[in-house]
């Protein structure tokens, strides 16, 4: 008998939990030689999510991991991974945009020898065009700059084998980019296409310009590439050429008897070099910030308590 662990990182999803667990159970109850556990990592919810899970725990194999404060979706995801006991682990959101009904297909891909099974969103219903457009652009930028080739429209809904998961968790990064690591580790991987549904209930937690979305984009680039640092070199080289041309122009105006240039040239020159310097410092600053977080050695998250499937608290 094999065990499947399903990890949910959530915050304030009281309206979705009952339907989510029911659909997951209905999708898996007829699988032969498989049993499952549901790990809900509670990112310090302030609604009735915990109370609902405690009631459902009497009927379903649910383990609840309560964080000591709000840490964010990815530290919670890592906490769930580290406490999962399954032969393979599925990570998915708690808003029912990712349909649990395709989990059996993911398991079949795993049984066929794939260590990582990605899901590819062919369509994303109920999401604005601008978000879909910018998401595709973001994936292309990450793929262009980084050392890993992320499958476009592959999110956090994926299956990872125990072997592959161990390699992901063995990495010592403070802020790991799990989507990238799942590709970076290699092994045999496969893809399942699906249509992503609108959110079942409640409001979306991550808008296209939210802090978490922007941070995830920057993290995706800086985790696997040093190329952004080279931007400073190219800008510096371009600035030298621009400065050389300005010197030639200044000498020409002086020796040809043309009047002194006005303030416009000075403003343009100062603005150009100031912008170049600030952009370069900003890029360098992002990498320094990552180094600073890494060397502090601070814990990625703190767990307040764990409520096991039998209701006992650790």
Structural domains: how many: 2
Shape: elongated
> Superfamily at the CATH H level of the largest domain?
Spore Coat Polysaccharide Biosynthesis Protein SpsA, Chain A
Query: Would you report the number of β strands?
Result: 8
Strand portion: 15-25%
CATH class of the largest domain: Alpha Beta
The residue-averaged pLDDT reads 77
Low-confidence segments, given as residue ranges, are: none
Radius of gyration: 25 Å
Task: Give the quaternary arrangement of the chains.
Answer: single chain
Biggest beta sheet summary: 8 strands, mixed
What is the CATH topology classification name of the largest domain? Spore Coat Polysaccharide Biosynthesis Protein SpsA, Chain A
Order of helices and strands: EHEHEHEHEHEHHEHHHE
What's the total helix number?
10
Q: Could you list some keywords that capture this structure?
A:
elongated, 2 domains, eight-stranded mixed beta sheet, 10 helices, alpha/beta, Spore Coat Polysaccharide Biosynthesis Protein SpsA, Chain A, 314 residues
Give the topology.
Elements: E1 2-10, H1 14-28, E2 34-42, H2 49-56, E3 62-67, H3 73-83, E4 88-92, H4 103-111, E5 116-124, H5 129-145, E6 154-161, H6 162-169, H7 178-184, E7 189-196, H8 211-222, H9 227-255, H10 263-296, E8 303-307
Helix pairs in contact: 1-2, 9-10
Question: Could you please describe the fold and organization of this structure?
Answer:
The protein is α/β, with parallel strands linked by helices and 314 residues long. The protein has 2 domains: 2-206 and 300-307, Spore Coat Polysaccharide Biosynthesis Protein SpsA, Chain A, CATH 3.90.550.10; 227-296. The chain has helices at residues 14-28, 49-56, 73-83, 103-111, 129-145, 162-169, 178-184, 211-222, 227-255, 263-296; strands at 2-10, 34-42, 62-67, 88-92, 116-124, 154-161, 189-196, 303-307. It has an 8-stranded mixed sheet with strand order 7-5-6-4-1-2-3-8, with helices on both faces. Helix 2 (49-56) links the parallel strand 2 (34-42) and strand 3. Helix 1 packs parallel to helix 2 (49-56) and helix 9 packs antiparallel against helix 10. The longest helix is centred in the C-terminal third of the chain and has 34 residues, at 263-296. The radius of gyration is 25 Å and the shape is elongated.
């Amino acid at each position: 008998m094999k065990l499947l662990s399903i990890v949910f990182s959530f915050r304030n999803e009281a309206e979705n939990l009952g339907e989510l667990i029911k659909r997951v159970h209905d999708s898996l109850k007829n699988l032969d030689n498989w049993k499952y556990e549901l790990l809900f990592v509670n990112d310090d919810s302030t609604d009735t999510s915990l109370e609902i899970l405690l009631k459902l725990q009497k009927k379903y194999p649910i383990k609840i991991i309560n964080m000591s404060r709000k840490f964010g979706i990815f530290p919670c995801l890592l906490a769930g991974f580290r406490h999962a006991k399954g032969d393979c682990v599925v990570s998915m959101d708690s808003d029912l945009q990712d349909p649990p009904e395709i989990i059996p297909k993911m398991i079949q891909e795993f049984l066929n020898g794939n260590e990582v099974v990605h899901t590819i969103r062919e369509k994303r219903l109920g999401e604005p065009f601008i978000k879909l457009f910018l998401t595709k652009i973001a994936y292309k930028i990450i793929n262009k700059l980084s050392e890993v080739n992320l499958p476009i429209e592959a999110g956090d809904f994926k299956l990872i084998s125990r072997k592959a998961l161990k390699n992901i968790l063995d990495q010592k990064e403070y802020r790991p980019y799990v989507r990238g690591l799942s590709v970076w580790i290699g092994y045999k991987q496969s893809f399942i296409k699906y249509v992503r549904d609108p959110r079942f209930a409640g409001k979306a937690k991550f808008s296209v310009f939210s802090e978490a979305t922007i941070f995830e984009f920057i993290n995706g680039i800086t985790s696997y590439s040093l190329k952004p640092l080279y931007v400073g070199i190219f800008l510096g080289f371009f600035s030298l050429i621009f400065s050389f041309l300005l010197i030639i122009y200044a000498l020409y105006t002086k020796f040809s008897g043309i009047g002194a240039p006005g303030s416009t040239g000075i403003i343009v020159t100062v603005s150009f070099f100031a912008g170049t310097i600030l952009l370069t410092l900003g890029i360098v600053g992002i990498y320094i910030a990552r180094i600073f977080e890494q060397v502090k050695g601070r814990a990625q998250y703190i767990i307040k308590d764990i409520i096991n499937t039998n209701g006992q608290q650790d």
